[in-house]
Amino acid sequence: MPFLDIGTWVKSREPLPGTFLVVALYDTTEKQNKFYELLEFNKFFTKQDRWYHVARRFNLPTDVKDSYEFSIYIWNKSKNDFLMDDVEFELSKS
Asked: Looking at residue 30, what is its pLDDT?
């Protein structure tokens, strides 16, 4: 099963409810999401104004087609300010 490992360092002076790293696969032919998962930043914080490593492995579908668009982005619903550094990701087939 293919997977995507993502890691980054995040720092904030306030809690980050509603702030997510999003991984998505969108089928441009069928015009629909085939995969969509969130990584909530707030789950990694115990104290504000410190750097925290935020990381996760996402198990991706095995039937990925050429018509799929792959996206990684930050969804900051709460509009809180934060710092992010050293974003790394690795895509593997197994």
From this structure: 94
Residue 72 near residue 1 (C-beta atoms within 8 A)? no
Residue 91, beta-bridge partner list: 4
- pLDDT of amino acid 45: 83
What is the rounded CA–CA span in Å between residue 60 and residue 38? Answer: 13
Rounded to two decimals, the pTM is: 0.86
Q: Compute the distance between CA of residue 92 and CA of residue 94 in angstroms, rounded to an integer.
A: 6
Q: How many domains does the chain have?
A: 1
Within its chain, how far is the Cα of 58 from the centroid? Answer: 9
Burial grade of 19 (CB within 10 A; 0-12, 13-18, 19 or more): buried
pLDDT of residue 86: 97
Q: What was the pLDDT predicted at 15?
A: 87
Domain that includes residue 9, residue range: 3-81
Whether residue 26 contacts residue 94, with contact meaning beta carbons closer than 8 Å, is answered with no
